[in-house]
Write a structure and sequence with these properties.
alpha/beta; 28% strand; 188 residues; Rossmann fold; 7 strands; 5 helices
Length: 188
């Protein structure tokens, strides 16, 4: 079994490297992906924690990463106009935002029609014993894991928001299987 870092590199980060145009990364965390947007014209990376935003901007400056701007924002209330971005991406974020439905609907709102959503998330297992374990442990561990839900169902949330799912890949990873989801905001 691959480590989570290696799995992210081979899946999520490989997708980031292909993105073009204007990209929004929601929840950039420690900023490890900020330099991975080789083809993008512009990257706006948001994080709710002001300290992380300051760190991200210092990282961008120190590593001389062009076209990347870090700013403070919540995934559930993105301060951007409708139809602003060509792509939105997030990694292990949907599981931990306070209002998952609102966050995913915000991703939909700020994406241009035809825009791409790339999400790398933990997901509820399809294996009965592991699924039951996740359901039992999730409410107990949420206070200790920065609100992360082990019983997250990102695919359902993304489909419910109106996205057309293009591709999914699921990977076994300890108690929290990972899923890479590529979805498009349909042309309306």
């Amino acid at each position: 079994m691959l480590s989570d870092r290696k799995l992210r590199e081979e899946t999520f980060i490989a997708e980031l490297e292909k993105l073009r145009g204007s990209v929004l990364e929601v929840g950039f965390g420690k900023g490890k992906t900020l330099g991975d947007y080789a083809m993008a014209d512009e990257v706006v990376a948001v994080e709710r924690d002001a300290g992380r935003v300051e760190y991200g901007n210092r990282l961008v400056q120190a590593q001389e990463i062009s076209g990347v701007k870090c700013m403070q924002a919540e995934g559930e209330a993105l301060p951007f106009q409708d139809d602003r971005f060509d792509a939105v991406c997030c990694s292990l974020l949907i599981c931990s935002v306070w209002n998952q439905e609102k966050a995913v609907s915000e991703f939909f709102r700020v994406l241009k029609p035809g825009g791409l959503l790339i999400a790398y998330e933990n997901t509820l297992s399809d294996r009965p014993l592991l699924r039951t374990t996740q359901q039992i442990l999730s409410p107990l561990l949420r206070p200790l894991s920065k609100n992360c839900r082990m019983n997250n169902q990102p695919l359902k949330l993304i489909e419910s928001a109106g996205f057309e799912v293009q591709e999914t890949k699921t990977f076994r990873f300890w108690l929290e299987p990972r899923m890479l989801i590529k979805a498009v905001r349909p042309d309306i």
